[in-house]
Amino acid sequence: MSTVKSALTIAGTDPTGGAGIQADLKVFQEREVFGMSVVTSVVAQNTEGVRAVQHLDVPFIEQQLDAVLEDITPDAIKTGMIATVEMMELIARKLKNSSIPYVIDPVMVAKSGDSLMDDTSRQVIRETLIPLATVVTPNVPEAEILTGIEIATQADQKLAAKYIVEELGAKAAIVKGGHLTGEETEDILYTDGHYTSYYSERFQTKHTHGTGCTFSAAIAAELAKGKSIEEATSIGKEFIRDAIQFSLEIGKGNGPTNAWGLRLQGLPNEGENVHGAPIR
Ligand SMILES: Nc1ncnc2c1ncn2[C@@H]1O[C@H](COP(=O)(O)OP(=O)(O)OP(=O)(O)O)[C@@H](O)[C@H]1O
Ligand SMILES: Cc1ncc(COP(=O)(O)O)c(N)n1
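Above: query sequence and MP5 SMILES. Below: predicted holo structure tokens.
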């Protein structure tokens, strides 16, 4: 009997492989958990932006979910782009009585500025999915929408993280500091009445496509392996630090994170990708 743990991502797609389901599966593989995926929306996007979105029918998303869950019980579940109220209601119904660790990356807007969740869903996610979450990982704009708190300082990040747990009912919340300024990034976790900060150097790079997906997938993978929320966040933060420090100059826009990270540390030189040549 295999002892390999598994993780399921329920999210949208990125045909260039840097964000969404494709990014999640790369991270699961690198963290040595067996990756599985259910597609919610097919997105025609690349490193420059989103061109078109096709939402799959909710009954078909349900068929995908049933196909996985009636066969394999994942050790952790992560959701990313869940664009509509109907999709949220379906996932909430499926996960309501589950004890599987569940990470929500409440994806609302892509880095390119394109909307990935409709306005009603931005409110409805608070009542449907957030109360079921083991960990919610909003960036600053997402945390502002979820809580109504304007976030400019570390104190604001703390207030928002506490609100998501105490008022919205998640077990834990990490309000990420990627969108703030300063020489370091600080992500603040609130759970069980305690705050913990996770820091990294802030790298000056435009290649940050998929950072939120990469971070939350790494946390989900570690929860699948039985790590505590604090341990999983700590490993996730180191993972995203390396994935951004060695992010890839692939494509014409904002290149993707590097899920190999330090493993291929020796290979990329400035202006080169891991294969030793610029990719255009
Ligand atoms: N320039 C940077 N240098 C180092 N770490 C960063 C940088 N930008 C973001 N991070 C870290 O990356 C992780 C993801 O944060 P971010 O705020 O970018 O997420 P996000 O906006 O949800 O990402 P996405 O746009 O992919 O949805 C966090 O741990 C954050 O601190
Ligand atoms: C399907 C999908 N999910 C999430 C993101 C967010 O990633 P980013 O903000 O880095 O573009 C995305 N672009 N596409």
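DSSP finds eight helices and ten strands in the chain.
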